[in-house]
Amino acid sequence: MVLIKDLSSDAAINVARRATLEKIAHDAGFGRARFSELYRMLYVNGPANGTMLNLPFDQLVEHGVGHMFAWERAADPRAVIELANRGNFSALALSIGQAEKYQNLIRPDMPLIVKVDGHFLVGKEVPYERHSNMATVERALRTGANAIGFTCYFGSKETERDVERCAEITDLAHQHGKPVVAWMYARGPLAEKMGEDSLYWCAQAVSAGESLGVDIVKQKVCAAAKNRSEYARALSETVEDGKKAKGYFYSKAPDVNKLLELEPEAQEAWTQELQVKRLAYQNSVAPASFQINSGGLKGAAEGVMKTLKAVMDAGMEGQIVGRNLWGRPIEEALELNKQMIELMRSPAYKRELTEPRFTGHYQG
Known about the structure:
This protein is an alpha/beta fold. It has helices at about 10-15, 20-30, 30-45, 60, 75-85, 95-100, 135-140, 160-175, 190-195, 200-210, 230-235, 250, 270-285, 300-315, 325, 330-345, 355-360; strands at about 50-55, 90-95, 110-115, 115-120, 130-135, 145-155, 180-185, 215-220, 235-240, 245, 290-295, 320.
């Protein structure tokens, strides 16, 4: 993990701190099958320079049918697959039902991530504290899955049961030589009180994903703490009614209060440079896992590109962007996809492979 004082907004520094696929595979000792699937996503499809741009579609399971009104074919799995086939993506991510029903529409060289769990949108009055398995790993493999995906909630009273479920999925996927992509999200009373998308909770969930042994961690782009006073209280020592009170996380590790340096109160301090440093910290807690961030709520193309640049400058491997791509008419989405790929192919973000067999110069 990088010390707060050593965080940088310089892409060259942040990328240099990241391990390449070959180093991670060597150190972890995993086999050719899992290596090959990751290689396809990082070095063959999409930006193809060791970074990753994925197109996900799990809206009908996770977010209901409301997105179908964005344009005339929005949230139609066939339109999303058409975008994936015509565009340039590292992988397409689908829920199990869509993967089964539309698998033969997917371009055969397109890596497919199949999510084996989910929850259906039924309202806040019926809170969900963990996802339910909707399929087995073996069922996902029958669709031609190149990687297995799941969502793990971190921070609710169901955390321990959820971790056991996700650990089993990870183990089975790896037994079959498939990499695992985990949507790691903070949920639960304390996370929601502080801000579940705040830097502390995003970083904590990313770290939990690496501890589970997953290969790729998907996370939100960390936001300002929803309730800064509660955030500061949990991460520091305060004086209440004349008595010192140690925040929960401060009591476990007092140095955690240094994170408050990355959570300024002054609005003018929230610059692009600060956000890059925040994302660089979030990235540093999982040095042997690939990290991709979400594309956020649908917005203008300029905002999408600004977020992508911050993610890449922080040294992250890339993004997984749904609504900001398939939420637009296909021609418009293809143009934005092209702009994103051009940015991600900047030499500043390239991860060099050093082994001759990976660079095309192997003499045998």
